[in-house]
Write a structure and sequence with these properties.
Keywords: ATP-binding, Nucleotide-binding. The chain has 243 residues and is α/β, with parallel strands linked by helices. The chain is 34% helix and 30% strand. The longest helix has 17 residues, at 169-185.
C-alpha cells in the first residue's frame, strides 16, 4: 500500500516561492488503480516525480507498506518497489532496446521474454530488439518502450504519466488490456496520470488536481459523475469539450 501524507513541493521563481504540490494526501491500497487527472500544468507530473524520488519533497511523508520512504532517493525507491514511466522518456545513445529491457528487469532477458514485453505495447520485436534508444526512434516509439521497461519487472507501485500520449489507437487498446490484466491480478498498485476517458473509467479511485491542490478525491462512483457532467469546457483540462 502507498500512503501519502501532507506532501508538499515548492520551487523558487525569481526569488518567490511557488507551491507545485500543496499538502496532498491520499492512499492506494494493494491492487487498486488510482487515476490522477485535472488541468494541464496543475501539478500532476510534479507529484509523480516526487513520488518516484526524482524531485525531493519540501514537506510531508510517503509510506510504502508502512515503511517511511520519504528520505529515499530514486534508486532506493526503485529497489523498494516503485516503478515510473516518464511522460517524455529520455533517450540513450548506444543502448539497445534489448539491453534497456534487461536493465529494467534486473536480469538478462531472453529474446522470447523481450518479445513478450514489446508485443504488450504494440511493437514488433524483430524490428526493435537491436535498435538504439536514441533519436532514430519517434516520440511514440519511445513512449511505448518506456512503458515496457516498467512492465519488465513486478512493482509494488507502478506510476504511468499520460501513457496514452503519442500512441496510436491499436497500441493503446493493447496497453489498456495490459493495465486491465495487472488490475485483475491485484498484486500491485497502479497510478495513472491521464485525460483519457477510457483510462479514467478503469479507476478504483480518481483524484483531480488543480493548481497543486486536490480538488476532488474519492471512489470512481463518487467522482466520475461530477467529472463527466461539467459543462464549462474545462473537464480534464481540455478547452472546448470533454476528454
Amino acid at each position: 500500500m502507498l500512503k501519502v501524507d501532507n506532501l508538499t513541493f515548492e520551487v523558487n521563481e525569481e526569488g518567490r516561492k511557488r507551491c507545485l504540490v500543496n499538502h496532498i494526501s491520499f492512499e492506494v491500497k494493494d491492487g487498486e488503480m488510482l487515476v490522477i487527472t485535472g488541468p494541464n500544468g496543475g501539478g500532476k507530473s510534479t507529484l509523480a516525480k516526487v513520488l518516484a524520488g526524482i524531485e525531493e519533497a519540501n514537506g510531508g511523508e510517503i509510506f510504502l507498506d508502512e515503511e517511511n520512504i520519504t528520505g529515499y532517493d530514486i534508486d532506493h525507491r526503485a529497489n523498494a518497489g516503485i516503478g515510473y514511466a516518464f511522460q517524455q522518456p529520455p533517450r540513450f545513445k548506444g543502448m539497445t532496446v534489448k539491453k534497456m529491457l534487461s536493465l529494467a528487469a534486473g536480469k538478462e532477458l531472453t529474446e522470447a521474454e523481450s518479445c513478450k514485453l514489446l508485443s504488450a505495447v504494440g511493437l514488433c520485436s524483430a524490428d526493435y530488439l537491436n535498435r538504439q534508444m536514441d533519436g532514430t526512434l519517434s516520440g511514440g516509439e519511445m513512449k511505448r518502450l518506456e512503458i515496457a521497461t516498467v512492465l519488465a519487472k513486478p512493482h509494488k507501485v507502478s506510476i504511468f504519466d499520460e501513457p496514452e500520449a503519442g500512441i496510436d489507437l491499436w497500441s493503446f487498446s493493447m496497453l489498456i488490456r495490459r493495465f486491465e490484466e495487472i488490475h485483475k491480478e491485484k498484486k500491485e498498485c497502479q497510478i495513472l496520470i491521464s485525460h483519457q476517458e477510457r483510462i479514467i473509467q478503469m479507476a478504483d479511485k480518481i483524484m483531480v488536481i488543480e493548481d497543486g491542490q486536490v480538488k476532488e478525491y474519492g471512489t470512481k462512483e463518487d467522482v466520475l459523475p461530477t467529472l463527466f457532467q461539467q459543462k464549462t469546457g474545462r473537464m480534464c483540462g481540455q478547452e472546448g469539450g470533454t476528454c
